[in-house]
Amino acid sequence: MIRRCHETDFRMLWGVINDSAQAYQGIIPEDCWRDPYMAEDELRNEIRHGVQFWGYQQDDQLVGVMGIQDIQNVTLIRHAYVCTSRRNCGIGGEMLSFLRTQTTQPLLVGTWADAVWAIRFYEDQGFEQVSEQEKDRLLRKYWSIPDRQIETSVVLADEKWRGRS
Known about the structure:
165 residues, alpha+beta, seven-stranded mixed beta sheet, 7 strands
């Protein structure tokens, strides 16, 4: 079941993110890797800045999480993670399909350029990578991330973004 996450879910939410993010170790640039991948205060800051997390619950446990954040005229997909033990079971696709119903705005998602499995997942869901120049512009406009992360990331856009005037 997909449901909105609440403060009482914080520890499970944080746990899913850091469990799943282990996939990035050795893939993303070494100077961008941290353990834990996301600190508790960083997650709290994301929530304070409007990231609304949704969770995929199985047997009273969150096994997947995905956030959305409305920024200006777009909705960002933020921090999409599925527990290592539950990957490749369709959870991410179900969550993304559900979150698409939560907004009428164009959707954008950023991810690490070397996380080919993540890029492939979003492409399979109908997203397309934007150009390098557009990526830099979008990451600076809609995200608050370091320059190093901008250099090593990609942005993918849904059909609403691609079809805008």
